[in-house]
Amino acid sequence: MCIGKTLCEKKLHGIALLVLLIFLSCRIVSFELLEIEISVSHMAEFYDADAVFVNFSIAVDYENFKEIALLKKDGKTVQIESSGAGRCFAIKPIECWKKGCAYTFSVDGALKTCDNRTYTVHEVRHFVYGKENNFLMLTQAPHSNLLTADEEIVFKFSKAVLHSSFLSAFSLSPYLETNVLFSDDGCTVRVQPILSWPCNTIFTWKIDEELIALDGYKVEKSYAGMLTSLEDTVLPELVCVQPAVMVNNTYLLIASGNLNTLIDKQPIGFVFSKTMDIDSVEKNISFSPNISGAVHVVDEKCTTFVFVPYTIYDIETPYELTVGKGCIDEHGLSLYEEKKYFFTGANKFIRVTSIKACNTELLGATVPPIVPMPVTKYITAEIAFSTAIPNARKELAEKAISSTLVFPLSASNPQMISMTWNFENTIAIITWMNYTSSNTEKNYYQIKIKGGKTGVVNEVGEYIKEDVCVTFIAGDN
Fold this sequence. Notes:
Blueprint: H1 2-28, E1 36-38, E2 46-47, E3 52-56, H2 62-68, E4 69-73, E5 76-77, E6 80-85, E7 88-93, E8 102-112, E9 118-129, E10 138-140, E11 146-147, E12 153-157, H3 163-169, E13 170-173, E14 178-182, E15 188-193, E16 202-207, E17 223-229, E18 238-247, E19 250-253, E20 268-272, H4 278-283, E21 285-288, E22 293-297, E23 304-309, E24 318-323, E25 339-344, E26 352-357, E27 360-361, E28 370-374, E29 378-385, H5 394-400, E30 401-407, E31 415-421, E32 427-433, E33 443-449, E34 468-475
Parallel strand pairs: 2-9, 11-17, 28-34
Antiparallel strand pairs: 1-3, 3-7, 4-5, 4-8, 6-7, 8-9, 10-12, 12-15, 13-16, 14-15, 16-17, 18-19, 18-20, 20-23, 21-24, 22-23, 24-25, 26-27, 26-29, 29-32, 30-33, 31-32, 33-34
């Protein structure tokens, strides 16, 4: 009986101990669920409240909550502003909500309650900020028909767009300078080329997702399309090259003219079959030997050009004029073929036709190389030229004409004391003094007219080819 009682007491003691352990364990481990309610539902596609509100069934640690709360815009983390305490919190981006942008809000990680219990939470919500049907949408896009030269392309939107936003969001490839015009209601945008659409070109236009409406909504997606300009396969040709003249400040081409008739700094005219690119024409007109000058456009259609030389055509010099295939038309098509022209300008050398002194002709085929001439201390010579010398060039001519002692050195060197011209400016009348004359000694003198471009020059820039010299012996009467 004693043994049975002892066993019974032991069983009762064990049961009591087990109950105690179960009671104590309940004080350490909590079986209370942490429930989370987020103002954005799992099924929501759009959300437009001021903040995302999070409610917990148990008060949680605020600092811990901020560590595991995350907000992303278009896949990129944004800084958030949070508020609240205990069970209720509000989350929103510091830089305000962007309408039409895709957001992701999450609370993910270990979260402590205010009484130091720890829960693992994982809640994610995806939404687009704003109201459904308020997105900015492209309702009409340009067609891919062939664009005429100055045709505008038109974009229509579901609501007014922010002008600066369209200018940064719109692109055209290959790039072309354009004017962008907005309608009064801001819903229609017209894009025009500043010059024209180049032919034979496929353009790609794009509006990226940065486009924003006036009310702040973004465009629902990016848009893109293709446009084709008109085709042009006809190569430009050089129709003619002719001398040109200026009449009433307008260049006119001489239809029957020949390049061999070019005089002075006369322009050369070029006529092309199509509107040409000005820069390419300027760069592809060349001369050999080189002639410095400028190319000018004559007509508004850019089919006629003139080359104006800075200096006269070199006298009796054959030229080769080349118009290269680098000349292109307004659509970028190259010249059909290179053209070459050969000519010699009509400019002529000035000739000294006569040199007379003391009634004696000193120049000519029948004149001996050295002419004896009765000379006092003075000589007046008349030098005749084949062309008139303008007043503006007379000072240069005076420096180009001289009389000097040749031999012996003991004789005097003459000095010019006067120079005049006849009415037609074709004869220079010059007087020198200080000659040494003798019947016993031969004193040799010469009269020289300097040749070249720095000598005697006429109105158009023609000059004496080379020096002209005559020699005489100064003797007594």
